[in-house]
Amino acid sequence: MKLLVNIDHIATLRNARGEGYPDPVEAAQICEEAGAAGIVFHLRGDRRHIRDEDVYRLKENVRGKLDFEMAASEEMLEICTKVDPHLCTLVPEGREELTTEGGLNMETVYNDFKGRVFPALRKTDVEISLFLDPNTRDIELAHELGADAIELHTGTFANTSAGKQQHELTRLRKAATLINDLGMKVNAGHGLNLENLPDLLETVPHLNEVSIGHALISKSIYWGLEKTVKAYLETIEDFYG
Ligand code: PXP
Question: 42, 49, 143, 153: which one is catalytic?
């Protein structure tokens, strides 16, 4: 099970003052040196954090897995094809949202993904992951499309009250089992932190990668990036040895 660090909010902090620091590429390098298996970035249509030049610099400097998280717009498909990351995670994107608010609705996007998005990405050898809520129908449709992986949206689990977390974990566990049975990889992300990660790792089988950003970058303000990444890795090692 691998830790991929999302470095979007290093860019958020940089952009707040219009300076060149902190640099998301330098942060990515520190994360990798501390043991992270790869780096995630989300190039949004409004460029609120990561910018185009960051993408090309990340491609050049990241040694491990590079996960390009993006909406399935023509613009992003073109950039992704050019950059050729290892993984492309397709997410829904709303202009007003503070962060990605949920998984893709596969019924809505199915025909478009089948006719336009998958053929464009399949011209490269990028692995395709779809960000989904833990719903059977969405997962089955993703499988029909030929997705390589599903990233399970863990935000509902992470943000719900303690009393409802078990219910959300059960949904995630069933979804992970189905994804694995259908021959796809199981990734997970959104809202994960050092407090809720152990429950996820204990309950949800077949995890391949977790993508963690906001809580990890926030904690690094106090602890430093290297120490924070190592703390996440130790949490993972407690379960996977
Ligand atoms: N996975 C996806 C698909 C996301 O959109 C995000 C947020 O950018 C994350 C993982 C990371 O979530 P967080 O920043 O809450 O750790």
Answer: 42
- The question of whether 9 is a catalytic residue gets the answer no
Q: What is the 3-state secondary structure (H, E, C) of the chain?
A: CEEEEECHHHHHHHHHHCCCCCCHHHHHHHHHHHCCCEEEEECCCCCCCCCHHHHHHHHHHCCCEEEEEECCCHHHHHHHHHHCCCEEEECCCCCCCCCCCCCCCHHHHHHHHHHHHHHHHCCCCCEEEEEECCCHHHHHHHHHHCCCEEEEECHHHHHCCHHHHHHHHHHHHHHHHHHHHCCCEEEEECCCCCCCHHHHHHHCCCEEEEEECHHHHHHHHHHCHHHHHHHHHHHHHHHHC
Tens of pLDDT, residue by residue over 10-55, are 999 999 998 999 999 999 999 999 999 999 999 999 999 999 999 9
Number of the ligand 1 atom closest to the C-alpha atom of 6: 11
Q: Which of 9, 32, 49, 69 is catalytic?
A: 69
pTM: 0.97
Looking at the CA of residue 151, tell me the nearest atom of ligand 1: 3
